[in-house]
Write a structure and sequence with these properties.
heterodimer; A: 107 residues; mainly beta; seven-stranded mixed beta sheet; four-stranded antiparallel beta sheet; 11 strands; B: 123 residues; 54% strand
Chain lengths: 107, 123
Amino acid sequence: DIQMTQSPSSLSASVGDRVTIACRPSHSVGSFLNWYQQKPGKAPNLLISGASSLQSGVPPRFSGSGSETDFTLTISSLQPEDFATYYCQQSYTFPYTFGQGTRLEIK
Amino acid sequence: QVQLQESGPGLVKPSQTLSLTCTVSGGSISSGGYFYWSWIRQHPGKGLEWIGYVYYSGSTYYNPSLKTRVSISVDTSKNQFSLRLSSVTAADTAMYYCARGRDSGYDRWFDPWGQGTLVTVSS
C-alpha cells in the first residue's frame, strides 16, 4: 500500500494567515492526489482533485500543487470557516489511501 | 444533485456481521459510466480507511486488509448498495461512510459522501 504522510499533524493559525499543508506519498502517485476538508461531526468534502483542480463551489483561496511524491495544499488567507481537518488521498492505485490528517486550529 | 444516506444498526456484537445500506437519491446508481460506489470508514479520532467499491454491474474490489471479511453488493432496483463485514471485533468500531467514486482514467475522487453512521462493536 502507498503510505501517505501529512505535515504538520496540527497547525495553529489566525484569520488572514497563509497556510500550507504538505502531503508526501511513499511512492509516486503522478497527479492522482486529492484533498478533502472535514469539519467536526461531518463527512469529508472534496476540495481539490488531480493535485490542483479546484472543485466547483470551493473558494479560490484554496489551491493545490505538486506531483509524484510531493504535494501541497495552500490556503491563501484563512477564513473562520476554514478551521477543520484536511486529508490528502491518493487515487493512483488500489487500495486508495489517505493521509493521517492535518488539524487546523484557531490561534 | 446526488445524495447518499447510510442506514443500519449502530451496535453489533463481537463475532457477528455488520450490515449497512447506502441509499442513493438524486441520481441513478445504474448510470454507470465513470461512477462507482464505495464504503470508507473512520475509526474514532483517526484517519480514513477505504473499504471497497461496487460498480453498478456488481463487480467489486476490496481493500486487501479486509478482503476476507467484506462483501459489497448493489441493488439497482432500490438504488442502494450495501456493506457486510463479518467476524467483527472492537477494532471495527468506526464511523462508516458511503461515497460515490469517479474514475475517468485521469480524474479519480470521492464525492459526494453520506453523512456517516457510527457502528459500535460491543457485547
